[in-house]
Structure formats: structure tokens, C-alpha cells
Design goal:
The complex is a heterodimer. By secondary structure, chain A is α+β, with helices and mostly antiparallel strands. Chain A is built from 9 helices and 22 strands. By secondary structure, chain B is an alpha+beta fold. The two termini of chain B are 40 Å apart. The chains are: A alpha+beta, B alpha+beta.
Chain lengths: 358, 363
């Protein structure tokens, strides 16, 4: 049982503000993900939660109790290390038991805890095996069992699967999510892979140079990013950002290749965000405006990424299936104004705002 | 002008055979990806092309020149590794210009080519920065530029993007492709990431356990995988494969999937490849190639997990021994625990021999 909260927490290293006035609450049993590029403050937040660092100001609360001065051991938060390292010379059971043995817990308590955790994580049948005999998924379960055996209030993972092959990563992230649902407990997770973050997180927090920019469910943040920065972090290929040139009742975008009816009652739009899957590409058949030119076609099998030259920056469209489209072709661009994200001069989203604004 | 011919290439390390009889021609100016999981033999193949390892058997030809005994430095290949090897005491400019200086090119040519490469790789603003302290992303870009500036006829890259972050990886995929279009080198690219291979390569050589599984364009391999390994490895998620036995029905041949019921009737060319009583087959279809059908039709599997990733929703189906995944564009109505009734597009179905794993094709 653990709710973990930051209230206006700031942490600096010399002149660098690693975490800047951060406030958030991670609910009990939540799978909560911190996401951002390198040096955005993700790892510092983990270290503050663990108690390896002290905040310069602000409060860190676990279940409503201030823990700023509590030692890491007394906070009872477990860390699952990167690459899910197990001791190779110990059996799975010895690995799981290790944190309790190290603390000289009584033998009967160790046995009970081991059994509890093994049942929860479905590893009872492999406890006698050495790590080398286990599959990747089994090793993962054993590593998490070792973190859970001392009954932590919450457990933290810092980019735990980044070293795995692409295919294994896709399977492992789903496995992690299942384990967390079955075993319960608050899980705080850090990754730099947007697809992984959206896949696993109940809610996620987006960081920009130590500042929390948005907190919400992945789908809310994807559909309703608070800023251009947030919009650009999620999605692959990334969102198209176009400068908004208003011509009467329409926006004239991408040097005339995309015309868009301006929505009513929206003032101060300087940029528009358009997800590649919302940009429709059809053969050019004349008409108003002008065509865009296909400069790149990347087949993914189920989808095709098409890069288009129109205006100052290339546009990306994500098309379903394997359309017959060639480099050099002239195409017409259209999109549904309701799918567009409108941004103001500070990069702030103007109408389609969701999640918890900060 | 250099094509690469690998002829009966074998590599053994003591009792372990890392590569078993590989035959592959990489055309001049082609972008070839060697794709497979760790330990499949792709890096071993690459190292032999580079001259870092010698083959146990077989030949490597660059055009009509046999490379046996030709040392790495004389092969005219550029090489970029997973771990960028950058001189950290030098600036970006000095790193880029290193090879040109070592070969004593005139100063004005060095300046011109260094600037051109910096422009191409968006390093212009960083040219006079010391390399120490630059991010991993930028360092890998410098490493690629330092190798590419020599304009090698053959450019070898061994997982160059696996240490950079995901967002940067997407940018670099486009840049590497542009680089190859500009210089028209023969490019050999080793990766375990099917997405990188699909998006960049002209052709892909899929490898597993030291054996070449299939060679073809990205879409050939995606649409018509030669065997189960390729079917599973290509695509994100990979192909669904459900085991069953061919049975005759009133409407034609179908596959009996046991508790999951009957598949839709096979198309004639698929039916020609299987016969009732001839043993189990695997019924394959891509996760993107299924549609939702009425409650009484199609195949029925419970939704065990809903994974929404941006534009796509991946449904994980089945809690028994047979599982499948489907991909749809939005999450409306997809709930964990519900039964999904779906059917693959008939033409998208692929059949595999359950015993040998090879694709079954009608004649």
C-alpha cells in the first residue's frame, strides 16, 4: 500500500536544476511512468523517491507521511535494476530469498514470504532452476519476485528492458503490465521509449528539463497534448507541426498544399499539430491549392509511412496497408479539422486540452 | 562499383558453427539489411565482409576480386559499430576530417568535404565543439559521418542505432537512407530490429541460428514469409499462427482450430496446398489483416489485454494455448474480458506445415 506524492519538490546539482518545483501524486497500485528525453529529470525523481537524494525544497510524502528525512531502508521502496540482474550462481529461490536472508529474517518467515511471492508471480515451478536455465520472461518474474519479497510499499524500475532485442521488448512490456496487475503494488517506471510508456502506463508524467509538463492517461496525452513539446514526444512517426497562416476563414498550410477550415472561436493560433495517421493522402486531381510531392515511402507491412515535400518542413503521413504510392508522385492532402491540435504562441494547446494541466 | 558475393560461406569457432553455408549476392549500390536475433550469425557475416574474421570455408568476392587474404585496411570498406569510436580529445570537425587528413588530401578538399558532410548530418553548428561532452546521439552521428566522408564503395553498419534513444533512432533512419542515396554505396546493415530493416533496406536477408532463412524486399518478406521464423520475426506484432487440421466443409476446405472453431473457408489456391488428413498446419494472418464480424461468425477469442499505442490499439487475444493479436486504429469498444469475433481477410491467410515450419503454397 503506497501513495507517493511530491509537493513542490526542487532538486539542483550546482547550477543545474534537475527537478523544478514538481508536484504529483501516484495512486496506490498504479503503474505510473515518467517519460522524457535524456536529462529531463526522470532518474533524479526516482532517486528522490528512493531516498538516495534529498530535495532542496518541497515535501516528499508516502501515504501522506513526510519522508524527506527518512532513510532509504525505512522508506521500504524496492528498486528493480536495469537488465533485471540475478545472481547467476544462485537458484531462483535463493535469488528471491536473498533480501530477507541478508536482513537475518527468521527462517519460517522467509519460507512463507517466498511461497507467497512465488505464487503471485507464477514461478513456484521454476524456483529450483539456475538463472541460466530460465527464459527471459521467467528471469523477469524472478527479478520482480526478489524486489517484492520484502513486501515493499512500492517498487521502481529505471528503463528495465532497454537492453533487450526489439521483439523481446514488445513481449516483455506486456508481461510487466500483467505482473503488476496480478501482484498489485505501486510501480513507478522510467523509460525513454514512447511506445513502451504508452503501452504500460496507467498514467504518465511528461518531463521537460526538470519541469512536469503534463500528467494523464497515455491516450489523453496523445490525443490532447498540453504543448507542442508534449505532442512531439509521443507518436511514431511524430506529429507534424505546421505554422498557421490564416487566409480569411481557412488556414493555408504547407505552402498551399493543405487547406483547412478554421474552427470558430479560436484566436491566437500560431501553429497546428497534425498526427501522421490523420493526414489523408490521395492522388492529385487538380483543384485549388497545389499538390505535395512524395519524397519517401517506408513500408512497415501493415502500414506505410509516406514523407511529403510541401512547404518548409517535410510532412509525414501514416497510411493503412500497402498503398501503391511512388516517390515523386504528386498528391493532394486533406484532414479533418476536428483532428487538428491548435497551438498558441507559447506552444500551448488552445482547444483540445485534456489530462491534468499543470 | 562493388557488388558483394558471399559463396558457400561458413564460419566455425571451435566446435560452434556460427554461420552455415551462406550464399548471398549484395548488388552494387544496394542497401541490404542482415536481420535476426542475437546469435543468428549476422555480425559474424559482417565481420567477414569487413575482413575482421576469415571464413572457415567459402569465398567473399567484391565484384570479381576474391577477398581471401586481403586485410581490412585494403578492402575499401567503411565501418560503423554499435559503440561509436570517436576521438574524444578532438573536435567534431577534426573527427570528421580524420580519414581525409590521414590520407593526405589537400586542405581545401578536406574543408569542402567536411562541411558537406556536416551539412548532411546536421552537425554544422557543432563543428568546433569538443567531442567529449556531446550526447550519445550526436556522437553516433559523428561516427557515421567520419566513416561516410571517405566515400567507401562498401559501407558496413553493425547495429549503429541500438544505443541511441528511440526518438533519435527514427530521425537517423531517414538520414542513413538519404546518405546512401547521396553516395550510392553498397550498404550492409546489421540489425535485430525488423522496423529498421523494413524502413531502410532495399532487400532484407533474414537469419536465424547461422542459417539464411529468406532474402527479399521488405514487402516480399512481410507478405510471403518462407517459414514460421520469418513470419513471427517480421511485423510488429509478428504474424498470428494458429494450429489446426484441414477439414472438408459444405462450403469448401477450412482449418479446424479445435476449441477456437473453424476458420473461414480457404481460397482455392490455399486449399490446393493442404489436404484433409495430411497432418496439422499453422493458419497464419497478420494482426492488421483481421476485421470484426457478427457474433455468430468468424473466430471467437477473449480479449486478454488492450494495448493502446498512439494511433494503434493492439488487442491480445486468447487465454488458452492458442493466442493471437489484432491491430485496430482506435480503442472504441475494445474491453478486456470481452469476446472478439473476427475473421482474417481471406487473401491474407498464409499456411505453414506444422512439422517442418515451411510455407505451404498451392500449385
Amino acid at each position: 500500500m503506497a501513495e507517493i506524492a511530491f509537493q513542490n519538490v526542487t532538486k539542483s546539482y550546482g547550477a543545474t536544476v534537475a527537478v523544478n518545483d514538481a508536484s504529483f501524486t501516484v495512486a496506490d497500485n498504479e503503474f505510473f511512468c515518467f517519460f522524457g528525453p535524456p536529462l529531463s529529470g526522470k532518474s533524479t525523481i526516482l532517486r528522490l523517491i528512493l531516498g538516495l537524494e534529498k530535495p532542496d525544497s518541497g515535501e516528499i510524502l508516502i501515504d501522506g507521511k513526510r519522508v524527506n528525512d527518512t532513510t532509504p531502508a525505512a522508506r521500504n521502496i524496492a528498486m528493480v535494476f536495469q537488465n533485471l540482474a540475478l545472481f547467476p550462481h544462485m537458484t531462483a529461490a535463493e535469488n528471491v530469498r536473498f533480501p530477507l536472508v541478508e536482513r537475518h529474517e527468521p527462517a519460517d518467515k522467509i519460507a512463507t514470504r517466498l511461497q507467497d511471492v512465488a505464487e503471485k508471480l507464477h514461478i513456484a515451478h521454476i524456483l529450483h532452476k539456475m538463472p541460466g536455465q530460465l527464459s527471459g520472461g521467467e528471469r523477469q518474474r524472478v527479478a520482480i519476485a526478489r524486489a517484492l519479497v520484502r513486501d515493499p510499499a512500492a517498487y521502481l524500475m529505471d528503463d528495465p528492458i532497454s537492453a533487450l532485442d526489439a521483439r523481446l521488448r514488445e513481449e516483455t512490456r506486456v508481461e510487466l503490465k500483467r505482473i503488476q496487475r496480478e501482484a498489485g503494488r505501486t510501480l513507478i517506471y522510467v523509460t525513454h521509449d514512447q511506445e513502451e510508456a504508452m503501452s504500460v502506463a496507467d498514467r504518465m508524467a511528461i518531463l521537460e528539463r526538470g519541469i512536469l509538463r503534463q500528467i494523464g492517461r497515455p491516450v489523453e496525452i496523445y490525443d490532447h497534448p498540453a504543448t507542442t513539446y508534449v505532442a512531439q514526444l509521443l507518436g511514431s512517426p511524430g506529429v507534424n507541426i505546421l505554422s498557421a497562416r490564416r487566409m480569411g476563414a481557412t488556414y493555408d498550410l504547407a505552402d498551399g498544399a493543405l487547406q483547412l477550415t478554421a474552427p470558430d472561436g479560436l484566436a491566437g493560433v500560431t501553429e497546428l499539430g497534425l498526427r501522421p495517421e490523420d493526414l489523408r493522402v490521395t492522388p492529385w486531381q487538380g483543384g485549388t491549392g497545389r499538390p505535395a510531392t512524395v519524397t519517401e515511402v517506408e513500408p512497415l507491412g501493415g502500414y506505410t509511412v509516406v514523407t511529403l515535400a510541401a512547404g518548409p518542413t517535410p510532412l509525414r503521413a501514416l497510411m493503412r496497408g500497402q498503398p501503391d504510392i511512388r516517390v515523386g508522385a504528386e498528391v493532394a492532402l486533406t484532414c479533418d479539422p476536428a483532428q487538428v491540435i491548435y497551438f498558441g504562441d507559447k506552444g500551448q494547446a488552445l482547444s483540445r486540452i485534456g489530462g491534468e494541466r499543470l | 562499383m562493388t557488388a558483394i558475393h558471399l559463396q558457400n560461406l561458413v564460419k566455425r569457432f571451435g566446435p560452434f558453427t556460427a554461420l552455415k553455408t551462406m550464399d548471398l549476392t549484395i548488388e552494387n549500390g544496394e542497401f541490404m539489411a542482415l536481420l535476426g536475433p542475437s546469435g543468428c550469425g549476422k555480425s559474424t557475416t559482417m565481420n567477414m565482409i569487413a575482413g575482421m574474421e576469415s571464413p572457415s570455408e567459402g569465398r567473399i568476392m567484391f565484384g570479381d576480386r576474391d577477398m581471401a587474404g586481403v586485410p581490412m585496411g585494403r578492402r575499401g570498406v567503411g565501418f560503423v559499430f554499435q559503440n561509436y569510436a570517436i576521438f574524444t580529445h578532438m573536435t567534431v570537425r577534426q573527427n570528421l576530417a580524420y580519414g581525409l587528413r590521414a590520407t593526405r588530401r589537400p586542405a581545401d578538399e578536406i574543408a569542402r568535404r567536411t562541411k558537406a558532410m556536416a551539412d548532411l548530418l546536421q552537425l554544422t553548428d557543432l563543428l568546433d565543439r569538443p567531442s567529449a561532452g556531446l550526447s550519445v546521439n550526436i556522437l553516433q552521428r559523428v561516427a557515421i559521418g567520419r566513416s561516410a566522408i571517405m566515400e567507401p564503395a562498401i559501407f558496413l553498419l553493425d547495429e549503429p542505432l541500438s544505443n541511441v534513444d528511440a526518438a533519435f533512432r527514427a530521425v537517423m533512419r531517414t538520414e542513413l537512407k538519404q546518405l546512401q542515396r547521396t553516395f550510392k554505396q553498397t550498404m550492409v546493415y546489421v540489425t535485430h530490429d525488423q522496423l529498421e530493416a523494413m524502413t531502410m533496406a532495399d532487400r532484407i536477408a533474414v537469419m536465424d541460428h547461422g542459417v539464411l532463412q529468406q532474402v527479399g524486399t521488405p514487402l516480399e518478406i512481410y507478405n510471403n514469409p518462407a517459414n514460421l521464423f520469418v513470419a513471427r520475426f517480421i511485423g510488429s506484432p509478428g504474424m498470428n499462427l494458429l494450429q489446426g487440421t484441414p477439414v472438408e466443409t459444405a462450403r469448401g476446405l477450412a482449418i479446424d482450430l479445435g476449441p477456437l472453431g473453424l476458420t473461414p473457408t480457404l481460397l482455392p489456391e490455399q486449399a490446393a496446398a493442404v489436404r484433409p488428413g495430411k497432418g496439422p498446419v499453422l493458419y497464419g494472418f497478420r494482426p492488421e489483416q483481421a476485421t470484426i464480424v457478427g457474433d455468430a461468425q468468424g473466430m471467437a477469442m477473449p480479449v486478454t489485454f488492450v494495448e493502446r499505442i498512439g494511433a494503434r490499439t493492439i488487442l491480445h487475444l486468447g487465454n488458452g494455448p492458442q493466442t493471437a493479436k489484432t491491430v485496430f486504429e482506435n480503442e472504441a469498444g475494445f474491453e478486456q474480458g470481452k469476446i472478439l469475433h473476427f475473421a482474417p481477410h481471406p487473401a491474407a491467410v498464409r499456411l505453414f506445415d506444422a512439422a517442418t515450419g515451411t510455407a505451404l503454397k498451392g500449385h
